[in-house]
Each structure stands twice: as C-alpha cells, then as structure tokens.
Design goal:
Order of helices and strands: HHEEHEHEHEHEEH
Number of helices: 7
Number of strands: 7
CATH architecture: 3-Layer(aba) Sandwich
Strand content: 15-25%
Radius of gyration: 18 Å
Helix content: 40-55%
Length: about 240
C-alpha cells in the first residue's frame, strides 16, 4: 500500500509540475496581452483576462483532472453587486473573475509591486488596499468600491482576508457588507470547496470536482454591516 501511495504522490507531482509550467506561460502571455491592450476600454481588458482564465481552467482539467460544478446561477443579480466568497485556494482568484463579469477584486497592495503580474492587476482596476492600515483600507474600499459599482462592475471580496485550509472557515471582515450597504446594492454569498483539489498549503493538485454554490442575494437595506456579514457567513458555513 505504501508503494502505491508513493507512486500516486509521484504522479501527482509530475502532473503539478506540468500544470505549473503551463500556468506560468499562460499567465505571462495573458499579462503581455493585457499590457498591450492596456490603453483600450475596460471591457476589452476584461475580455483578455477572462479568455486567459478560461484557458487556465481548461488546462487544470486536462492536466490535473479537476472539474468544476456551479449551481445557483439564477441567484446572480441583474445589477452590479458585492460578492462575498470564502477563500481556500488560488483557484477562486481566477474563476470568480469569469463568473461575475465584469469584476473588480479587492486585494493587498503588495501584489501590484510584482512585475507584469502587478501591472495586469492595475489594468483590471483591482482595489489594492494597505492591510497594515485597516481604517484607511476601509475608506478606500468604500470610495473605490462605490465607483466600480456605479459603473456596473461587480466587486469581489474575500472577507477572511487570507486563504484558509479546507474545510475550515475563518472570521469575516465587515468591509464588503459595509460597501454593499453604503452603495445600496445586494450582497451575494458564494461558497466553494476548491481547497480539496487545489490546497492553499500544497503545490500538488488532487483530481476531483470543485463545487461552487451561489447563494440567494442578501438585501442590505436592513441590518448593520456586522449583521449582514454574519448572515452571509452563516449561509457559507452551512453550505460547506
């Protein structure tokens, strides 16, 4: 049994190496294309990224045997909203941009400093916050987030603030709910189990199906940001 498990680990390692080798090439090509079209309107830049992300998801399925199952698509509002998702993996940073087009992701400012990658994030109008200054970060999320929403762009936020090992669920920050309430838009809870196939703490990929569920939108007219955040967290926790 030990030798069989060892062979499986080796095979997983080979597949992961091939996947990441291809991923590096794909991301570099996507970012190069994004830099070339950076002067074009946002919708064309978004098309460049979503096309690249689709290829990455296809590559993940082809090399690592990871499939994707999405349910609850009918729950997506017709107007721009704030998407609150649990954070288990790198996978959702790619996939959610495709699922909620157009989308602006809230992320830590340091990512903008990465050559090519950071430039790509800048062109995608990501909201880059300084996590060492929580008060300033909240003000920035509210200001820039409301601008994005007014332009019909969904705002995607991972309220745990960092990747959490599956199937655990971390504490939620209230900035996403505060933004939704301030902008008068709905809050959309999303849960997934990507960490089982694409773990946050391992470079190996496990074949299987990532299940993503979109919950019913939450009306932000009633309740405080903390209460709205807890409502979203309870739904995500029950759906995991």
């Amino acid at each position: 049994m030990g030798s069989v498990n060892g062979m499986l680990k080796i095979w997983q390692g080979v597949r992961a190496f091939v996947f990441y080798s291809g991923l590096v090439v794909l991301v570099l090509l996507m970012l190069l294309a994004l830099c070339l079209v950076g002067f074009l309107p946002f919708r064309y830049r978004q098309l460049c990224v979503t096309s690249g992300n689709r290829v990455i998801m296809l590559w993940l399925r082809l090399i690592c045997g990871v499939r994707i199952q999405v349910s609850g698509l009918d729950n997506i509002p017709t107007k721009a909203c704030v998407v609150l998702s649990n954070h288990q993996s790198t996978w959702e940073t790619f996939f959610l941009q495709n699922l909620f087009v157009p989308a602006s992701v809230i992320l830590k400012r340091e990512l903008l400093w990465i050559p090519f990658f950071g430039w790509g994030l800048y062109f995608m109008r990501a909201i880059a916050i300084k996590r060492s200054n929580p008060a300033g970060a909240i003000r920035q999320v509210l200001k820039q987030g409301k601008q994005r929403l007014a332009q019909g762009i969904n705002v995607v936020i991972f309220p745990e603030g960092t990747r959490v090992r599956a199937p655990e669920l971390g504490n939620f920050m209230t900035s996403g709910a505060a933004l939704a309430k301030s902008a008068g838009v709905q809050l959309l809870p999303v849960r997934h189990d990507a960490g089982h196939c694409w773990p946050a703490t391992s470079w190996l990929k496990t074949p299987g199906t990532i299940n993503l569920v979109i919950g019913p939108p939450i009306d932000t007219a009633q309740g405080t940001p903390r209460e709205l955040t807890e409502t979203a967290r309870q739904w995500i926790d029950s759906a995991l």
